[in-house]
Every structure is written in C-alpha cells, then in structure tokens.
Write a structure and sequence with these properties.
- There is one protein chain.
- The chain is of the alpha+beta class.
- It folds into three domains: 218 residues, 2-Layer Sandwich (Beta-Lactamase); 66 residues; 169 residues, Heat Shock Protein 90 (2-Layer Sandwich), CATH 3.30.565.
- The protein contains 16 helices and 18 strands.
- Strands 1, 2, 3, 4, 5 and 6 form a six-stranded antiparallel beta sheet that branches.
- Strand 10 and strand 11 form a beta hairpin.
- Helix 10 packs parallel to helix 11 and helix 15 packs antiparallel against helix 16.
C-alpha cells in the first residue's frame, strides 16, 4: 500500500548515513561495474602476473646465459694465452732433441724464439744435470727462480709451472719447465720466464656495463689478475668466495651473491683447461645486469595498468549504459508512487528492459484507471457524507420556510426562526468552507518561520484546555534549531489540527510530546525527486491516546474518512495538503492502546528548490 511503502522509505531515509558501502549497495550500476571489473580485471591481472613472471624468468635466464658465455670465452682466451708458450717450448725442445743441436745453435734458436715471441722474458736450455747450455740472453746470468725444483719435476718427465709472481717492476711472471727427450730419456729441459702482462690486458679488457668486471684466480685460490691491481699486489686468498670455491672444483655456473656495502651481484665462473688449474670469474651488479628486466617489468606493468584502466572505464561505461534504463524506470516508478500518472518514459529496445517498460506503461494505465475509480468511489462517499451532514440543516430550513407564510405573525415562531435559521445557515457555511479548503490550493505567503516561537505560541494557546483535560504538553527541541521557509499561519493550522485530534484521543488525560531535530537526507516529494539529500527538520507529534487500528491507518488522510463521531473527516486531509505545499511529507504510526505518532519532514530551505512557485 502506498502509505505503508512511503512510511518504510521515510524510515530508511531517517536511518541512512552516507558511506562508500551504503553508496555501493544502493546502486545497481556500481554492483554491475564491479562484477564486470572482476570478470575482466582478475583474469587479466592473473594473466599479466603469469606472463610477467615467465618473462622475468626468461630474461634472467638469458642474462645469466650471456654472462656464462662471457666467462667461458674469457677462460678459453686466457687458456690459449698461457698454453701457447708451453706449446712453443715443447716444439722447440723436440727440435733440439731430434737434431741434437749443439749449445751454440741452441742459443741461436732461443734468441730467435724470444725475439719472435716477446712473451718469453728468458729461455734457458739445461742438460739433465742442470748445467746451462744456452740462454736467450747471452752474457747474462739466468734469473730463473726455483731451478732445482723445476729440474726435479722435468726429470720425472713432467711439466713444471710455478705460481704467478710479480717482478720488481710489479709485472706478472710465470716460470715453466719443459723436458725434451732422446731415446725415451730426459736429455735436457727448457726453462722459461713468461711475461703475463698480456693476460692482465685480457682481464682488464672484460667490461660489462659500468660495474661488470672479471678476475682470475690460481689453483690455490690466489688472486692473480684483477682490474684493481692493488688487490693483486696483496696476494689475496679468496677461496672462501662462493664462486671461487666452485670454479676451483672445476665447475661452471652462475649465481647471485650479496656483498657487504656493495649490494647484490650476478657472478659467473668457468675453469681454465690445460696445465693451469686456474679459474675465471665474471661479476656484475644485479641492478645493472637486470636493467632490461626492470624496463620490461615497468613496460609490462604500465601496459597492464592501462589495460586494467581501460577495462575499468569500459566496465563502468557499459554498466551505466546497461543500468540507465533501470534509472529511468526507477524515476518513473517514483513519479507514479507520488501520484504522477501523466509522466511517460520510453525505452526503444526489444530486449527484456523494453518489454518491462511496456508492462510498466500498462501498469501505469491501470493504476490511473484505478485512481479514477477510487476518485469516483470517494466522490460517492463524499456525497453520502455531505448529504448526511447537510440533511438536518436543509430539513430545518425547509421546515422553517414552509411554516413562515402561515406563522409569520406568531411571535414565538419568529423567535425560533431567528434562533435556528442563522445556525443552520452557519452550519452549511462551515461545511462549504471546509470543502473549499480540500478542493483548492492555499495561496501561501512564504517567510522564515521560527519553529521554537511557533510551538511556544501553540503551547500557550492550548495550555488551559490541556490542563483541563489533564494532558501534559511537552516540547523537545535540539539546541540551535533554526527557522524554516514556510507560511507560519498555515503551519500553525497544521499543528493546531494535530493538537485538537490528540486532545480528543486522550479523554482521560495523557501526554502530548513534540520532538524537533535537524537531519540530512531525502524527502520523497515530486519537486525534490532529483535531490538525493537535503537539510530538513523532523517533527514527531506523539500522543498517548487510544491509537488507531492498523487497518484504518491507510485511510486517515483520505477526505470524509473519520474515526470520530460527528467529524467531517477532512482535517488530516487539509493537514497533509499544507505539508505537501511546503515540500514536506507526513506519515503516521499507531497501535491501539499505544497512542499515535505523526512524523513530519519539512525542508529547511524550500524556496531554494522552487517549492512555492
């Protein structure tokens, strides 16, 4: 029923507080948009995350593979550099042994070898007893370190290699010994001092970005080549380094490790094959090594964000487009609920919403027909009530009119005529005046109305009557209750009518209270239908009288419907009309034996919304 429905809406309106959750739950478009966003964004986000993780893994693997290849190539290059002198010495020793070259010719060969290959700082040929036969530096005493140790190794038919050491001018050198044979026996050896400056150049030439660098370690874990020569001079033992320990174990691989104060590094390592059990290590800061990964992740994240943003915007726009007919239908239903049956909304589609609009139009037409039938029934009720009300007065007037010609000389009859005729006419005049109030709009004179002052006057006016009827008159108002736009005289009529009704409902005394407070929310009024929230005052008029049965609540505001003997039944109709003219609403709550409460909502600034135009 309309009154009950409006009352429930008013109750919901009174308890409504704005919050994101309340906004979300009250908008279908928000729910639909969220559903579409979840359907699109979650799979899209999941796919983006999976692809990003896969791409990250692939890029890291590619970078690590490239680093590993650099380490292998560097190890191979260093290996070639140090193996080449050994091969030259072996071929030279074999030539000496085969040709049984005398010391003079050996010296010529050794000098030519050192001239052709400057890597040889010194080459000495010795016999099996260690006697020097020839040297690449004639006239100079050989400076070969640890000759006895070298001879011991070569006599065992093994190649001798010393540890890398630094000369007085801080250049790296390596001593090697290669035996040569005659008839399967060691007949002598070539002892050479090899300059490894070229090996340092190879290591120094490895540059990967700004932080990438390479270093070389001996089989004992001693740093023998590094871009920072100070570290080489310190003869550092770095066997505790994870990559060094792996490369000394003749393993190839890549790892990430953290260094104090230097951050995270990407490290690749590879052993050097051949006589030298050295190892090469390539390292680069991970921030630089994976710089492409950061760019890729940023690009992917940006593209994903844009895709999600587009999906969100499209979802919102699509949901609004889908829900727009629902908004139109909701607006239309609110207009109908407020009695506007002339408004017509159209939706030109053949889908379910289009059929719903057609069904809603049919419902509107039937409601309009039902209202017309209700008006006709009300007209019948009003006619019956009016006939009953004016019957006695008309009968009295007709009787007096019929008797007047024959008894106009009768003094007693004239006195009766003078007494009854004005009363009957006045009664008819009163009925017509009340009918005019129902049938016509009041010409309101809006001005600021001080509610505290208005209720103060009402309390004073009804004080004597309320005391006589033993009714306590109480007013509860919030501090700072401001004035409202309205016609003070018409609003006074409203509350006077409600006070009179309340006093009549409490023949044995009771309590009549007025509660006034300011609120913010929606008022369901045709001229405020587009206003979602305004400032208004809520006025509750509560009595402790007999109450009204539930089945009668739907009819209390209808004209010519009354629960009082002798009443016209148009007082509350007039009250509702005045409240409606002020842009407000009035509802009723009542239970038999529990009293009755009228709830009135009036906008504070009705003029702002064109209520009085």
């Amino acid at each position: 029923m309309i009154v009950s429905t409006e009352l429930e809406e008013i109750k919901q309106n009174r308890t409504f507080r704005f919050s994101p959750w309340n906004w979300f739950t009250s908008h279908i478009s928000a729910k639909l948009a969220l559903a579409m966003i979840l359907v699109v964004v979650i799979p899209l986000s999941g796919l983006g995350i999976v692809l990003t993780l896969a791409a990250e893994k692939a890029v890291k693997a590619s970078v690590q593979r490239d680093h590993q290849e650099i380490a292998k190539r560097t190890a191979h290059e260093v290996g070639l550099f140090v193996e080449r002198p050994l091969e030259l010495l072996e071929s030279t020793g074999a030539m000496i042994a085969i040709n049984q070259t005398d010391p003079w010719k050996q010296e010529t060969v050794l000098v030519e070898l050192s001239v052709m290959f400057p890597i040889f700082e010194e080459v000495v040929s010795v016999d099996a007893s260690g006697k020097v036969l020839a040297t690449s530096n004639p006239g100079k005493e050989p400076v070969f370190n640890k000759r006895a140790e070298a001879l011991k190794r070569v006599l065992q038919k093994d190649t001798y290699t010393s540890e890398v050491y630094l000369s007085n001018d801080y250049l790296p050198y390596l001593d090697v010994g290669i035996p040569y044979f005659q008839q399967g026996k060691v007949s002598g050896a070539l002892l050479a001092r090899i300059n490894l400056r070229g090996m340092w150049d190879i290591i120094d030439g490895i540059r990967i970005g700004e932080t990438g660098r390479a270093f070389l370690v001996s089989k004992n874990g001693i740093l023998i080549a590094h871009p920072d020569k100070k570290k080489v001079l310190l003869n550092l033992d770095i066997t505790q380094n994870a990559a060094v320990s792996q490369v000394l174990a003749r393993k190839t691989g890549t790892l990430e490790e953290g260094k104090d104060k230097e951050g995270q590094w990407l490290v690749s390592y590879a052993p050097i094959s051949g006589e030298f059990e050295w190892g090469i290590v390539i390292e680069q800061k991970t921030d630089e090594a994976y710089a492409l990964l950061k760019v890729m992740l940023w690009s992917t994240a940006s593209a994903g964000f844009l895709a999600i943003l587009v999906a969100v915007i499209v979802s919102i726009l699509a949901s609004r487009r889908v829900v727009q007919p629902v908004h139109v239908l909701e607006f239309w239903s609110r207009r109908i609920s407020l009695g506007d049956f002339d408004y017509l909304a159209m939706h030109r589609t053949r889908d379910e919403l289009g059929r719903l609009f057609i069904a809603f139009k049919r419902m509107r037409d039937r409601l309009r027909e039902a209202r017309e039938q209700e008006y006709l029934a009300m007209l019948g009720t009003a006619s019956t009530a009016l006939a009953h009300k004016i019957k006695n007065s008309i009968v009295s007037l007709k009787t007096l009119a019929d008797l007047f010609p024959s008894r106009r000389a009768d003094l007693e009859f004239l006195n009766q005529f003078e007494a009854e005729f004005p009363n009957s006419v006045g009664h008819l005049e009163k009925i017509l005046k009340q009918l005019s109030k129902v049938a016509s709009e009041y010409a309101l004179t809006p001005a600021p109305v001080d509610l505290a002052e208005l209720f103060g006057k009402l309390e004073k006016k009804f004080r004597e009557v309320s005391e006589k009827k033993k009714v306590k008159f109480r007013i509860f108002s919030e501090d700072g209750m401001s004035s409202i736009d309205g016609d003070g005289e018409r609003l006074a009529d409203v509350f006077e009518n409600l006070i009179v009704n309340a006093l009549e409902a409490m023949p044995d005394g009771g309590e009549l209270t007025f509660h006034l407070r300011k609120k913010h929310g929606r008022i369901f009024h045709p001229k405020l239908i587009n206003e979602t929230a305004i400032d208004y005052v809520e006025i509750k008029v509560k009595d402790s009288g007999e109450g009204i049965p539930k089945e009668k609540l739907e009819e209390v505001f209808r004209p010519f419907v009354t629960t009082k003997r002798g009443g016209m039944g148009i007082g509350l109709t007039i009250v509702k009309k005045i409240i409606h003219q002020h842009g407000g609403t009035i509802q009723i709550e009542s239970e038999p034996g529990q009293g009755t409460t009228f709830i009135i909502l009036l906008p504070l600034t009705a003029s702002k919304y064109g209520i009085f135009k």
